[in-house]
Structures are given as C-alpha cells and as structure tokens.
Amino acid sequence: MAHTANPASTPDAESSEDPETARSRRPEESTVEAAVETMQLLGEVTRLRLLRALCDGELDVMTLARVVGADRSRVSQHLAKLRRVGLVDRRKDGSRSFYRLRDPSLRMLVLAVLWYAGRHNGVTRCEGEPGPSWPSLGKIQSRRPPTADHDTGRQVDSA
Fold it and tell me: Which structural domain, as residue segments, surrounds residue 60?
C-alpha cells in the first residue's frame, strides 16, 4: 500500500485558517526582538557555559571562572552583560559577588538549547542530569552519528 502525503500538510497547500486567525498567533514584534537578543547572548560559548553553570544555583565569580575554564576578568565582563540585559542577578557578600538566574524559565531554555544541540550532534547521554539526554558541563558521552543511505533512507553502519 503506497503512502500518500496529506495535501493539507504540504507547504504550498492553501490553509483552511483565515488570515486574521493566523496573524493573531504571531508574536508581537517586541517579543520577537527580545527573543533574538536572548538567543544572540546564548550564542557565545562562555556566556552559555556561565548560564548552564547557574542552572544549578547561585555561584560566586571565582567558582564560575573555574567551572567554565576562563579567567575571572573575562567571566566578570560576561556576567555584567548578562546582568545588564536582565538574565542574571548579582548579590554582594563583602567583597564577593554571587550570581544566579533571574528567571527560573531561563534554566529550561538553556537546558533545552543544550539538549537540542546535543541530540543533533550525536550526544547520547549527559552525566548528572535528571533525564536521559539532558546537557551537563560534566563528562559527555557521545557516539558517532549513524549515516544513512541517501537513496533508501536506511541506516548504514559507518564502521
């Protein structure tokens, strides 16, 4: 029995939804701009590592520098930028500064981005996380991604 595509699911098929309803589902322009800014901030390696470390709770600058493998001044500069845009909060205790994620939903975003990237780059498991494929700064176990026969779509052993 041959499988045929549902014509309504093809990109060039006409939608049964009226244009006003479709437009009402679009996010506000300011929301899209804020999302782009956030994703750009996540696009820098040290900042993403800092945010991932902060997913586990509040940490001081020296600990963050050790965790992400960067010098303290560089970490401080990144943290200042993250603080200016409202992604992290700072708490002073004497001469030490402690940082934490401002909004708990940022934790889910950071973990989801790392999980997504890992899944699409052959990562099978990350130690120290609650789920089977959650990202971690810890040791990552990876496998060579399977290759596929482009004519049949079947997996081919790449060994």
Answer: 30-148
Cα–Cα distance measured from residue 102 to residue 117, given in angstroms and rounded to the nearest whole number:
24
pLDDT tens, residue by residue, 104-122? 999 999 998 888 888 777 6
The answer to whether residues 85 and 44 touch, using CB atoms and an 8 Å cutoff, is no
The number of domains in the chain is 1
Q: Please name which of 88, 69, 70, 66 lies closest in space to residue 79, comparing C-alpha atoms.
A: 88
CATH of the domain at 121: 1.10.10.10
Decide if 140 is inside a domain.
Answer: yes
**Is there a domain that residue 9 lies in?**
no
Distance (Å, whole) CA 85 – CA 37: 9
For the entire predicted model, the pTM comes to 0.62
Provide the terminal-to-terminal Cα distance of the chain, rounded to the nearest Å: 34
